[in-house]
Request: fold
Amino acid sequence: MASGIPSLHFLRAPAGRATLWETKGDAVLRNPDHVTIAVANAAPAIEFFALLGFRKDHVAVIDGGEPAAYMGMPDMKSQHITLVLEGAEPHFEIQLLEFDPTPGSDADPGEHPTNLRRLGYNHLAFRVDDIAATSAHLIANGVRMLNEEMDYISRKLRFFEGPEGITLELVQWVDADDGASSQT
Reply:
């Protein structure tokens, strides 16, 4: 640790388990905590994520100050809406930012978020117990599926479109004993 940076040790986990990076016995990463999504209108995003089991936990108003400076936008004004995934262990949140004023149609939105080839954010995946039932629930509520279900490396996968056109994914883990096909 001569450079002041702790050395990292890679631990091999049992087959089928996640690996863990450690520094001096303390886990560097435990699990995802939250994902923040900037939206033009929070209401439809809140309704959308409710379909997936998220509930509104709290709303904070950012009007400059320390939170805005931390995010690199010292004059930022927005609602910061925290949605909590009910029953998730570990705890997981989606945090929505609704800016005031809402960026106009002349604002540069960047590349369309469902373009999975663009650099930066690609997609967020949600683990589910029954991908077919979850897909049916989303479709029945008007959610646009972006592809058909695929079996891949002991998982069933399916992309769908979320608020502001972001790409989200359903993931169902499948036991190798279950006869589900896997690809490499």
Summary: The longest strand covers residues 54-63. The longest helix spans residues 42-51.
